[in-house]
Every structure is written in structure tokens, then in C-alpha cells.
Amino acid sequence: MSSFEKGTVVVLTRNHRAQLLRTLRALQQLPEAWPIIVVDNGSTDGTARAVGRQFPAVMLIRSRRDIGAAARNIAVAYAHTPYVAFTHDDSRWEPGALARAACLLDEHASVAVVSACVKEAESGRVHPQCAEVARRATLTDSSEGGPVFGFMPDACVLRTRAFYDAGGVWPPFFQDGEESLLAIDMAERGWGMWYCDNAVSWRQTSEPPERMRGRRWRNDIWTAWMRLPCKLAWSVTLLRIKEAARAGQLRTLLLAVAAGAGKVFKRRRVVSPEVAARWSQHHTDVFSGSQRLSPSGSRQSLV
Residues 95-121, buried b or exposed e (16+ Cβ, 10 A)? Predict the structure, then answer.
């Protein structure tokens, strides 16, 4: 299988015309030469027109409205390759990074996703969220990284079959933390996740707006109650509520969580004790050590 047939790059964008065009130029210069799919989430700044004119080889999918991260579900449906690389619209992959990630997936048939090492373009620092993923990586003898529970949602290479197997992105999340449910569902189905130091993506970064932090807190709570045992779900909920209170967003968070509570509890399927234990080992910020689950812990459910 040639490199061109191995993977597809997926980029979501909305009203970021200039930075998207820079990203596409960089992607087309990569030695892997993977085909590119862009989903325009209802841009009003001429993004779609510019992409169609300057990059005729790029598959452009136009959404009439902004559907957030769920646009990846549409893009993957058009990808006819075993792997897909989710890419931020202000990022550039290092030459060879996609090939290294694909090689790891080739060598480890049970691994669903390889999470990249994201670095800030101006400073060279590792992105904070990526550093947290790396910190939680299980130590191995490999210099390339190690197993993790989670991944960077817009800097990773996924096995297409695993994405479908886990159900893709749940649309009500919109974005910000939408990958957590996908990671849990992949783990429940026996898929592994890997962090790779040598697969580097460079990004122009900025502090997330307050609304993005609020969505992340809401989505964390929703995910917890859809999949985790009650004890862990309450721990996640209390932690995010405390963070929202410190930020002066408690009322907003509670209203947002309540608005989707019906849909969340309809989808509640508690994962196995083994997966819950793995999740707890990689999320030590949620609770004290005395609250961690062992693989022999019981399955708790509200339904």
C-alpha cells in the first residue's frame, strides 16, 4: 500500500480563511502526500470559495451551519483509507510525522489512535493539553511515547474502523472535550491509544475563550454520567462544579448540564470495571487516591 492510499487528512474550519490556507499549503508539501478533506462549518468569510479556487485537489465539504466536532463524522464517511489524521486549521505536521504515526498503527493492530506531540510555533513549548496527555502516558522502554487513555482530538491519527466502531463524535457535545467519550468507548471495545513524541504537529496557540472552558466542563460531566460508575461520575461533577464556581460560571454550567441531562441518561451505559480502573489511573486530578477503582470494582449505574 502506497503512502497516498494509507491515510486522509481531515481539517475542520470556520471563519479562519487565512490560517486555513496556510495550513493547506503546508499539508500539500508533506512527503506523505495524503489526500485532504476540509469541512467548512458554515463560514461567512469566503473560506469555501478560497479553498475551492486555490486548492482544487482538496475535497471540500460545506456545512450550512456550524455543527462543531461532529463534522468529523461527515469527513470520515468520505475517507476511503484505513487511517485518518485529524488536524487543527492552524497547524502543520512535521514531515514524516504522519508516516511515523501510521507505522505505529501498522505494527500494533489493537491501537486505535496515535496522539501527536503538539508544540507551540512561537515558543517551541509543548501544548499544555498535550503535555497532560504525555504526563499520563504509561512509561515504556520506547523513546516514542507510550499507551495513554485519551488523545488530542485535532492532532492525532486514528484507525478509521475504530472511529466507526466507537460511534464517532456525539453531536450534542459540539466541541471541547468531545474526544473523551470516544476514548472511553474505544477502550470498552478493546482498542488501545498511544502517545507518540516523534509525531509532531506545530500550532499557533492561544488561550481558549471562557465559553470553550465552560463547554469542556459540561462535556466532562456529561461523559462521566454516560459511562462512568456513580462514584467516579460524582467526583468528576464536583470537580468541574468547583472549577466553574471559581471562574464565576457556576450558574451557566449547571444550566448547560441540566439542558442535556435527559439525552445523557438515555445513553448511560456503564463501562466495565477494567476500563473504569484504567480511566481513573489516567485522571488523577479527579479524585484522591482512596477513591480510585480497582479492576475488581463493581459496576454502578443509575439505570
Answer: eebbbbbbbbbeeeeebbbbbbbbbbe
